[in-house]
Recover the amino acids of this structure.
């Protein structure tokens, strides 16, 4: 009887400990998501840095995201930006190693891989583009309702649709079949993102305007660029989108 009581107590205390750990983890993740929704980047970064050695992908992809956000702040110098960009990629890479079934892991791995391409030359950047598309398609497969993933894949398509001729030549020399896309394909993803989550992101509005401009549809370009201009500017990206939208609207007259 005594042995049974001891075993029961051991089971209870172990279960309670795991429950406590799980509760604490969820509280931190909820706090992190709240800070992100409020654009409290510095506070969020400090919170998640405590978990940089974690094996939990949910902490790691969030840390990759906020480290990237810090790198994009206007007060960050070029050397710091590069360091933070590579740090963000390392967190995303570790997250991918820990959990390949989380859509956000694939999404932020792709984003961070794209970022480091800016430092590694055109050959590496174009080579990485295949990997980026694969991970974005996986993210959408795992969560077809994530508007940001749809936006990113649209941006990927737009970038290759308007790839300058000299980069197209480089890509054709390096790769047997270089990445290609069209404005129509990009538009499909941007519109799908807006359908899934209307008005979710200033840059999706901006890219809809730019895509319609590229397709010579002035009326629709004006519509979406006006929406981008009027979008509440909470983040640096929102401010950039507002500024570009204003400039493009002037060009359209």
């Amino acid at each position: 009887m005594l042995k049974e009581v001891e075993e029961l107590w051991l089971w209870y205390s172990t279960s309670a400990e795991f429950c406590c750990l799980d509760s604490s983890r969820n509280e931190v993740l909820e706090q992190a998501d709240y800070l992100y929704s409020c654009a409290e980047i510095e506070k969020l970064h400090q919170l998640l840095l405590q978990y940089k050695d974690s094996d939990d992908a949910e902490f790691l992809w969030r840390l990759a995201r906020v480290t990237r956000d810090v790198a994009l702040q206007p007060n960050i110098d070029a050397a710091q930006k590069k360091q933070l960009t590579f740090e963000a990629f390392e967190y995303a890479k570790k997250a991918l190693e820990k959990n390949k079934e989380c859509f956000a892991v694939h999404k932020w791995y792709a984003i961070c891989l794209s970022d480091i391409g800016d430092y590694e030359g055109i050959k590496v950047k174009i080579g990485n583009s295949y990997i980026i598309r694969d991970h974005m398609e996986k993210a959408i497969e795992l969560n077809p309702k994530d508007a940001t993933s749809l936006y990113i894949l649209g941006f990927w398509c737009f970038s290759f649709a308007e790839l300058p001729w000299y980069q197209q030549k480089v890509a054709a020399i390096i790769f047997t079949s270089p990445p290609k896309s069209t404005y129509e394909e990009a538009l499909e993803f941007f519109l799908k993102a807006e359908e899934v989550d209307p008005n979710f992101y200033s840059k999706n509005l901006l890219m809809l305007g730019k895509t319609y401009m590229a397709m010579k549809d002035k009326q629709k370009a004006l519509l979406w660029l006006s929406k981008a201009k009027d979008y509440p500017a909470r983040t640096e990206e929102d401010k950039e989108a507002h500024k570009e939208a204003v400039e493009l609207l002037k060009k359209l007259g």
Notes: DSSP finds twelve helices and no strands in the chain.
